[in-house]
Amino acid sequence: MTVDTPLSAYTTFRVGGPATAVVSCPTTEALAGVVRRLDQEQVPLLILAGGSNLLIADEGADMVVVRVASTRHWVEGNVLHAEAGANWDAVVTAAVAAGLGGIECLSGIPGSTGATPVQNVGAYGVEIASVLRRVELLDRATGSVRWAHPEELHLSYRHSILKNTDTAVVLSVELELLDDGLSAPIRYGELARRLGAGDGDRLAPAEVREAVLALRQGKGMVLDSDDHDTWSAGSFFTNPIIPAASLDEVLAAARARLGDDVSMPHFPADDGYVKLSAGWLIEKAGFTRGHPGADAPARLSTKHTLALTHRGAASAADITARAREVQGGVEEAFGVRLHPEPVCVGITI
């Protein structure tokens, strides 16, 4: 256990003040035991693994940080088992090396495996929901450990019943993958063009992984300590999902701002809703790559308007101010409120 440790050392944003203490748990048994004990003693705690989806206030957190450091992962047949602290890209690498398909489109995503079902991680047309077999959970109310199946988690776009709650802790994950030597069907236009593939084509998982990594690197979405465009939490805002009945109003705002011939991307979502592109809204609201300029300690990525980045001397307050500026500008321009994807501790956006 360490005391008064700056949490900036544990997040990809590289900001955040100290916690009361940091306790590292190298096994799932240790993780369950530490959380049980702290809960029994009613000690406030924060579960932290890869820190790639986390923004912590400069004042820090008056709580004990429990680090998920259980990193084992292995393959049995077409099932991949991974403890919650396993580096996600290492898990993808293991699947591809075993000739298993299904998660190659999720290559290069930073963070831990335990976080993937919590927010139904997705990229390039694939979500973790498509391969999730079951999740091992510690129920914090009872202290018991059990396996939960995907239907219990109510997985949806970047969401599950585990997100933004303290009811359970993910201990490990099982994924059921494709064992015929081919990838999941290619469904994302940008990736298909990169591969020269048609919609629904299936290719070698290693080939798809290589293409995905190249695309992500071009957007500053693969961690690199020398590249400030990767000092971020990836996409900071989720794509907004609005009632279909509200679409005409948003389109009217877009035409009023950008002209009658504007083409605003929008996609059908479930149950009478429509998904919009957060990146498009941000850019068309006037926030271009690198906004507001080279001297700003926190700014939009120079490669990708959805990422807020720390340029080396930023505070959490700087990043928060930039997020609020973008959020407010999009809402003023289009009447659409963007919601942050990262978990915010001591911060409201």
How would you explain this protein's 3D organization?
The longest helix has 19 residues, at 316-334. This protein has helices at 28-40, 88-97, 115-118, 150-153, 189-195, 205-218, 247-258, 278-284, 316-334, and strands spanning 2-3, 19-25, 45-48, 54-56, 61-68, 73-76, 79-83, 122-123, 126-127, 132-139, 145-148, 168-176, 232-235, 241-243, 266-268, 273-276, 298-300, 307-310, 343-345. It has nine helices and 19 strands. The two termini are 31 Å apart. The protein is α+β, with helices and mostly antiparallel strands and 349 residues long.
Low-confidence stretches: none
Helix/strand order, N-terminal first: EEHEEEEEHHEEEEHEHHEEHEEHEEHE
Q: Calculate the mean pLDDT score and round it.
A: 96
Count up the helices.
Answer: 9
Largest sheet geometry: 5 strands, antiparallel
The outline comes out as globular
- State the distance separating the first and last CA atoms: 31 Å
How large a portion of the residues is in β-strands, by DSSP E? Answer: 15-25%
Radius of gyration: 20 Å
Q: Spatial order of the strands in the main sheet?
A: 6-7-12-10-11
Structural class: alpha+beta
Strand elements, count: 19
The residue fraction in helices comes out at: 25-40%
